[in-house]
C-alpha cells in the first residue's frame, strides 16, 4: 500500500484520524514519548499508545531509545511524502 493510501485510511477512513493528525503535528516539532504526547494532547496514555501503534504499523512513525520512555519520530518515508499528508489533512477542513 502506498503511503498516500495509508494516510487516507489512517486519517480519513477510520475513527481517531484527528488525534493521529495531532500526534503527527507534535512529532514534527520534536520527538516525544507516549506519556508526553498524552499530556500535551489531553488524551489517555492508552489512547495515545493505540494511535502510535497504528502509525508505526503503517510506517508513519517509528520509535527509538529505551523501552520505558522510548521516543517516537516521524519516519523518513513520511518525510519524503509530506505533501500527501498535507493533501489528506487539507481535505478534512
From TrEMBL:
<dbReference type="InterPro" id="IPR036390">
    <property type="entry name" value="WH_DNA-bd_sf"/>
</dbReference>
<dbReference type="InterPro" id="IPR036388">
    <property type="entry name" value="WH-like_DNA-bd_sf"/>
</dbReference>
<dbReference type="Pfam" id="PF12840">
    <property type="entry name" value="HTH_20"/>
</dbReference>
<feature type="domain" description="HTH arsR-type">
    <location>
        <begin position="15"/>
        <end position="86"/>
    </location>
</feature>
<dbReference type="InterPro" id="IPR001845">
    <property type="entry name" value="HTH_ArsR_DNA-bd_dom"/>
</dbReference>
<dbReference type="GO" id="GO:0003700">
    <property type="term" value="F:DNA-binding transcription factor activity"/>
</dbReference>
<protein>
    <submittedName>
        <fullName>Helix-turn-helix domain protein</fullName>
    </submittedName>
</protein>
<dbReference type="InterPro" id="IPR011991">
    <property type="entry name" value="ArsR-like_HTH"/>
</dbReference>
